[in-house]
Amino acid sequence: MYRFGKLNRVLRGHYTYYGIAGNFRALQNVDRAVERYWRKMLSSRSRSGGVTWEAFQKIKKRFPLMRSKLHLPYQALQAIAVL
Fold it and tell me: Structural domain boundaries of the chain?
């Protein structure tokens, strides 16, 4: 599962860079978009016509995606803010 590990590394870098206070809703949108795209790619490789959401949930349980996280919360952002 080399590609799966690479996907989580890319997500970790994205969340580290963009994970500041105020971006959490946008990061959650990224989570949903990545899940939809991952399912679409799995379905395109399936000869049986696609991966159902139930099957995809089992795959997600076995290979969990990294979830969005704030690396610079509001308190830390206020502490470094210069007025």
Answer: 2-80
CA 78 to CA 57: how far, in whole Å? 38
Q: What is the DSSP string of 14-62?
A: HHHHH-BTT-HHHHHHHHHHHHHHHHHHHHHT-TTS---HHHHHHHHHH
The tens digit of pLDDT for each residue in 28-83 reads: 999 999 999 999 988 887 677 788 899 999 999 999 998 888 777 777 777 776 65
User: Which residue has 């949930």 as its token pair?
Assistant: 57
Amino acid identity of residue 37, one-letter, is Y
